Amino acid sequence: MNTTTAGAAAGATRTRKRFAILAMLFVVTTINYADRATLSIAGPALSKELGIDAVTMGYVFSAFGWSYVIAQLPGGWLLDRFGSKAVYAASILLWSIFTLLQGGISFLTASAGTAVVALFALRFLVGAAEAPSFPANGRIVAAWFPAAERGTASAIFNSAQYFATVLFAPLMGWITHGYGWPAVFVVMGLLGIAVSAIWLKTVFTPKTHPSVSQAELDHIAAGGALVNMDNANTQSRSFGEPPKLHYIKQLLGNRMLMGVYVGQYCITTLTYFFLTWFPVYLVKERGMSILNAGFVAALPAICGFAGGVLGGLISDGLLRRGWSLTVARKTPIVIGMLLSTSMIVCNYVDSAAVVVAIMSLAFFGKGLGALGWAVVSDTSPKEISGLSGALFNTFGNTAGITTPIVIGYLIKGTGSFSAALVFVAANALIAVGCYLFVVGEIKRFELRKTGA
Fold first, then answer.
1. Alpha carbons 163 and 309: distance in angstroms, whole number
2. Average pLDDT in the 77-92 region?
3. pLDDT of amino acid 12
4. What's the pLDDT score for residue 110?
5. Rounded to an integer, what distance in angstroms lies between the CA atom of residue 244 and that of residue 239?
6. pLDDT tens-digit profile of 247-265?
């Protein structure tokens, strides 16, 4: 009898449903970032057709960032109130519809001003719809993964941003070259709509998954996974109310969290350079065709993807070997950001091949250091993890507003990308300073549930 029970238990431990959930997070995040990057690939052809200069293009690029930031805290509250599955499904559907509609801008090209306003508005709506996505990723990882696996899990879903470029930059470049820039938005919008339906069929909370074993539930719960996060009967009613100012004040008043938040702003500056201006840099500064730029942009992205996965593996490996959570999370972040500063060297070389090699190293470093969401999963108060992740993402994605605009002015003012690369690299150095001198010990922040 004992042998049978032990055998059944051993068999149960072989279920790995959390990795299927992670696979869906990876797929959805890939689509998420591909939709963000549609304009960067279509941008050179679109801006030429509409007669848009660098500064105007910078503002259009920033439209996503404005709404993405504004909608972060409401999105985080929605996640805490209604759960990750439903809110995320609605998010995917809406941002895909707004992406699809951008293809219709081609009918407005007779009036450049109207076309620019419509494009800005639709990018704004895409940003608002995508706002809950990364806080939801963080919540789902916190619910499904024990602490010793959380760094790798967070790195994997975060590395989807690089895989999006690897897979979709060449595809979108080919579509733009062969069928025109509107086709990019149509294809990506339809793909996202299909993915939203798949999401509803495949993603569940740990407690509601139809085929998860009790042994897997016990394993992840024992390791610190918040398996009851989205269970209505276990959530405190106070956290279903609209976000209270004193919760946000507590988060902002913590030195560790503020260091993480500011560091994320700096790290995300690198992300938005690669998402918005990098393909334009290849076309206008390095003389590549749109088709070639789409394929070449995939090479640094492959390195970013490798760095992203490696950063999570290194972090969790250090943790399993007995190093503190602080050392395990900070080490890849600091090394990665230092590697990212290598992009400045591009200002001093003429060879396109060398430029791509340097950018690949910088992108590898950016991937290696992109462990912010693992840190959020480690530090967020369990009662308001959605709100905490949203605040973190608010700081980070403010860079989605500032980076495209600042780079646009730098390009117009200097006539080249040299100052822009210095600006991006300087942000990487500031991120290093935040993690070395401000963050201190990384640990879960305990929320005070009373007070004004």
1. 11
2. 89
3. 46
4. 60
5. 9
6. 888 999 999 999 999 999 9
The pLDDT score that the predictor gives to residue 416 is: 86
**Other residues' Cβ atoms within 10 Å of the Cβ of residue 65:** 25
Question: Using alpha carbons only, how large is the chain's radius of gyration in Å?
Answer: 22
- DSSP-derived secondary structure for 133-198: HHHHHHHHHHHH--HHHHHHHHHHHHTHHHHHHHHHHHHHHHHHHHH-HHHHHHHHHHHHHHHHHH
CATH of domain 17-228+236-437: 1.20.1250.20
Give 275's contacts (C-beta < 8 A, 6+ positions apart).
33, 36, 37, 40, 161
Do residues 122 and 98 make contact, with C-beta atoms less than 8 angstroms apart?
Answer: yes
DSSP helix/strand/coil, 448: coil
**pTM across the whole model:** 0.71
Domain extents in the chain: 17-228+236-437
pLDDT band at 153 (very low <50, low <70, confident <90, very high): confident
Number of neighbouring beta carbons within 10 Å of residue 101 = 17
Residue 378 vs residues 141, 257, 372, 384, 385: alpha-carbon distances, Å: 10, 11, 10, 13, 10
Report the alpha-carbon distance of residue 258 to residue 77 in Å, rounded: 20
Helices (H), 224-297: 245-252, 255-272, 278-280, 290-296
Residue 39 and residue 184: Cα distance in Å, rounded? Answer: 9
Q: Does the pLDDT of residue 132 top 80, yes or no? A: yes
Query: Rounded mean pLDDT of 289-317?
Result: 83
What is the H or E stretch that residue 301 is in?
Answer: helix 298-320
Task: Compute the distance between CA of residue 169 and CA of residue 10 in angstroms, rounded to an integer.
Answer: 44
CB 273 within 8 A of CB 61: no
Angle at which helices 385-397 and 133-144 pack, to 10 degrees?
140
In angstroms, rounded to a whole number, what is the distance separating the alpha carbons of residues 139 and 142?
Answer: 5
Other CB atoms closer than 10 Å to residue 402's CB: what's the count? 17
Higher model confidence: residue 87 or residue 373?
Answer: 87
Which amino acid, 68?
Y
More confident residue, 234 or 113: 113
Three-class HEC string of 381-418: CHHHHHHHHHHHHHHHHCHHHHHHHHHHHHHHHHCCCH
Residue that wins the pLDDT comparison between 289 and 125: 125
